[in-house]
Amino acid sequence: MSPFSRLNTADTSSLPSIVKGDTAPAPLPPSVEAAYKKKCIQLKQRLNDIEAENAAKRIRIDRNKRFVEKMRLEQAILLEHLGKIQQKKGLTPEGLPLYDFPEDDPDSEGSSEGPPTVCIPQT
Questions:
Q1: pTM of the full structure
Q2: Of the residues 24, 98, 108, 123, which has the fewest C-beta atoms closer than 10 A?
């Protein structure tokens, strides 16, 4: 048997008066009222502080996102510029000199030579 099956919707005699809505709750003593008021003021102040911190953090996050976007754009521009410089100097993107492999050269068919070597001067 369910504990709610005993409760008739029309029968509210077993409910406290505050739930029934018959009467208002008894007034609190002044010391408790003052304590609640003080706690309420503290909570409102804490809420305002947290909202201010959130606003400051939101601004900082937005600023950081813009900075990251700017740095990504700058990186793309610099990489493109570096690629153009390397292309003018005849270098690969890894900074190695460009050269033709023997298999790309139609005149060197059947050659037993290996790929050309690259001399890197030591500084």
A1: 0.46
A2: 123
